[in-house]
């Protein structure tokens, strides 16, 4: 299977071979790693299991980060879900709870899947697991979705960045949400073109999102950005499945994200020298963790 180096090439390859994004990614992995389809799915099943554990633990009990800066919010959302009084409905509340749970497990030094980074670890699991439950998908179908997400991830890795230190939070949470949106569109029966439209829309909506972690820790505002990213992925998937297209194609949107990220001052690229990290409260929270001399 030819390696796609752009979204346009990926769409062409999928059309020529009459395959989905997930089947493209599976074919590439089999070729690159010399593994059988069964071996690849066994590895992906292990990944899905860790994702599910991380997305569940914080909903079953309050989980706190080692710093004490975040924790218990996924559990609060799960309790709120049980009241049946949410404005957005159970699906989106569940997605936010899953995303926060993974972020809280990460902060507690628990096991997560960095997909594509630890700071954005809650978005893809929340979107895939929530959509999977709502659509009645099997584990194998959710694993297919994860392969679809990886097809988009390969393009981001080749043509842009996942690093907040290089591209801001748009490169971390933005990339995770773009990958998740593409995957959910495939889960809903969308074409590769529709999946890449979803990714493009997500990127356009987060252009310029800065990386400003309080105390330099991947906790504030990162955890709640994971909840927002999961909602972005799911809502964008519905947009696209309704027939909404992106006027700016995926390749252009990805290029814009990368260029905008590189244009951000260093204060807004994971250094904790700008944004909410240097607000009076942000500084107080840093002192709370590391002391006044930090």
How would you explain this protein's 3D organization?
The protein has helices at 7-17, 21-33, 37-60, 73-81, 90-107, 123-135, 139-159, 164-167, 169-187, 192-206, 222-241, 250-263, 280-290. It is 65% helix and 0% strand. The model has no long low-confidence stretch (mean pLDDT 97). The chain has 294 residues and is mainly alpha-helical. It is built from 13 helices and no strands. Helix 2 crosses helix 7, helix 4 (73-81) runs antiparallel to helix 5 (90-107) and helix 6 runs parallel beside helix 9. Its EC number is 4.3.1.17. Its cofactor is [4Fe-4S] cluster. Keywords: 4Fe-4S, Gluconeogenesis, Iron, Iron-sulfur, Lyase, Metal-binding.
Main features:
single chain, 294 residues, mainly alpha, 13 helices, 65% helix, Fe-S_L-Ser, metal ion binding, 4Fe-4S, Ser_deHydtase-like_asu, EC 4.3.1.17
Helices and strands, with pairings:
Blueprint: H1 7-17, H2 21-33, H3 37-60, H4 73-81, H5 90-107, H6 123-135, H7 139-159, H8 164-167, H9 169-187, H10 192-206, H11 222-241, H12 250-263, H13 280-290
Helix pairs in contact: 2-7, 3-5, 3-7, 4-5, 5-6, 5-11, 6-7, 6-9, 6-11, 7-9, 9-10, 9-11, 10-11, 10-12
In short:
This protein is mainly α. It has 13 helices and no strands. It is globular.
**Average pLDDT for all residues:** 97
Tally the helices. 13
What oligomeric state do these chains adopt? Answer: single chain
Global shape: globular
Number of strands: 0
Please write the string of helix (H) and strand (E) elements.
Answer: HHHHHHHHHHHHH
Distance between the termini: 52 Å
Strand content: under 5%
Taking Cα atoms only, what radius of gyration do you get, to the nearest Å? 19 Å
Q: Give a quick account of the main beta sheet: strands, pairing sense, barrel closure.
A: none
- Classification by helices and strands: mainly alpha
**Uncertain regions spanning at least 5 consecutive residues:** none
Helical amount: 55-70%
Domain Serine dehydratase-like alpha subunit: 16-277
GO biological process, one term: gluconeogenesis
InterPro entries: Fe-S_L-Ser, Ser_deHydtase-like_asu, Ser_deHydtase_asu
EC number: 4.3.1.17
